[in-house]
Amino acid sequence: MVKLKKAVLFLFSAYLMISAMLYLLQEKLIFLPSKLPADYSYSFTQPFEEIFITAADGAVLNGIHFKREQPEGVIVYFHGNAGDLTRWGDIALFFVEKNYDVIIMDYRTYGKSTGKLSEEALYNDGQLFYEYALEHYTESEITLYGRSLGTGIAARVASENRPFRLILETPFYSLLDLGKSRFPYLPVQWFLKYPFKTHEYISEISCPISFFHGTEDTVVPYNSGLRLFNSVSGHKNSFFTIKGGKHNNLNEFRDYRDGIKEVLSMDHSNRSEDK
Description:
By secondary structure, the protein is of the alpha/beta class. The protein folds into 2 domains: 1-30; 34-274, Alpha/Beta hydrolase fold, catalytic domain (Rossmann fold), CATH 3.40.50. It is 42% helix and 18% strand. Strands 2-3-6-4-7-8-9-10 form an 8-stranded mixed sheet, with helices on both faces.
């Protein structure tokens, strides 16, 4: 009986210790930023302007605004959880080469951006970049694009505005839902500071939504994105299954490239009809 009590106490202590570690280290698990010196000079193959936006709390947010001479519209791009604009700027060129202007920001603590992280701060920062886009474009020209972590931010911004379209690449139902599936025996709902409940915002979005997800995604499972899609009704929404696609390689698949071409072509034709 004494040995049993000791074993139970040991397991309970280990349970508490693991839970405490996850609570304290969650930002290091969710956010994987790389820093850039303040005087770093970006270099891209397409014309761009570097921008800085100051948030209400004094955080300075760094971004890149790619510009075409006669763009089809603008894509406000919210990137994933790792790296900085040196990487994500190159990834965004995929859309610039399709004759779209692109505005892409680095989150707080990423690249040259400063400020303290919080879920609400990320949403507010996303709104600031949307408002920057509105200074240069009409809402009917704005497509919001979210990738992985950025899908939660893009969905929240879309729910509070009226962009022309929302595109979500490797989206999740919620980060809380992912946490529960990764750590089923831990009380994730008690200590997660970044639940990112995308499913709550998706139902408030008025524009068409296009989803892209790979069947072999081991970071955000395919079923999480499909569950998000099934949680919202609307005949204008579409889900593109990328067979064999993983989390970071969808652009290597023809189904993804053809799907993006289809979505952007619909944007162009619909905008022409509205004029």
